[in-house]
Amino acid sequence: MSLHDHHCVNALSATARERILIMDGAMGTMIQGLGLGEDDYTGHGTGMPCAHATDLPQKGNNDLLSLTQPQAIEQIHYDFAIAGADIVETNTFSSTAIAQADYGLEAAVHDLNVEAARVARRALDRATALDGKPRYVAGAVGPTNRTASLSPDVSNPGYRAVTFDDLRLAYRDQIRALIMGGADLILIETIFDTLNAKAAIFAAIEAFQAQGIRLPIMISGTITDASGRTLSGQTPTAFWHSVAHARPFSVGLNCALGAGAMRPHMAELAGVVDTLTCAYPNAGLPNAFGQYDEGPEETAAQLAGFAQEGLLNVVGGCCGTTPEHIRAIAEAVAPFAPRQLEKEQAA
Ligand SMILES: [Zn+2]
């Protein structure tokens, strides 16, 4: 192979054979908790003003905070790292030209991703200076707000709001910048449409080839309803067969349902995938106000059940999970061995 494997793969893979790896919790709900206003988002209040001009309101553009409030984002990463996270996700869920078009900030995509990776790296280096434990930056790649395989127009089922190539190019720019900023892994997450994920995988491989590096890819789908399918209609097993060609570092599920409802789908995946599994559910289902009520001990107890059943290699939290959730999860799964891959069991 002409590409050299990134240095961290071996160390991370070795640790994954010894214990369950811990991911961080949710960035979005932590940011909501800061109660920031428009001036905070643009940096014209207390932060660093954004150099990219736009007339559109920016409140809610959480990814912009990596540029305008880097200390706040660094603190969230640091708190998750100290709580026990081995892998921390960059604040780049919506840092593609497609998602940033809602805010008129397509031109900021390069800076958003480079700086987000650097902010995460700084936080992890501070944590490692304290306790000596190595930690890894996962460049987070979200699904965008458009789907390539479904029509948003019920009267025109053949219509598509975005093409595979639109997505591929947008993801390629994002992933290139994440690599430049120092990401150790690429995490393609919250996948509701497998075609979008395939565009992201393609883009990641293109970026690796262009930059002469190969980072581990983590792939995480989301089951959006009780029938146990993704929004584009796949079961967990079908989803795995659609992404296996990427030879991912891990495959799993995140977001949408809390741990309780996710369990049968993780059990199905754990039975079929020949790589590491990863689960990071929300803190239960959102209440009538869109908030998550499940406390750290409750989420942790359920995920300890996953671990006891041998379903887990990597675990963390999604919407509503705090550093306290991650600390509780890390403690709760610590007594259990990681899921064994079949080839290891045979050896
Ligand atoms: Zn979520």
From TrEMBL:
It catalyses: (6S)-5-methyl-5,6,7,8-tetrahydrofolate + L-homocysteine = (6S)-5,6,7,8-tetrahydrofolate + L-methionine. Pathway: Amino-acid biosynthesis; L-methionine biosynthesis via de novo pathway; L-methionine from L-homocysteine (MetH route): step 1/1. The keyword Zinc applies. Its cofactor is methylcob(III)alamin; Zn(2+). Keywords: Amino-acid biosynthesis, Cobalamin, Cobalt, Metal-binding, Methionine biosynthesis, Methyltransferase, S-adenosyl-L-methionine, Transferase, Zinc. Residues 9-333 form the Hcy-binding domain. Zn(2+) binds at C255, C318, C319. Its EC number is 2.1.1.13. It is an enzyme of class 2 (transferase). InterPro entries: HCY_dom, HCY_dom_sf, Met_Synthase/Corrinoid. Gene3D superfamilies: Homocysteine-binding-like domain (3.20.20.330). One of its GO terms (cellular component) is cytosol. GO terms for biological process: homocysteine metabolic process; methylation; tetrahydrofolate metabolic process. GO terms for molecular function: cobalamin binding; metal ion binding; methionine synthase activity. Belongs to the vitamin-B12 dependent methionine synthase family. PANTHER family: METHIONINE SYNTHASE. Catalyzes the transfer of a methyl group from methyl-cobalamin to homocysteine, yielding enzyme-bound cob(I)alamin and methionine. Subsequently, remethylates the cofactor using methyltetrahydrofolate. This is Methionine synthase. The gene is metH.
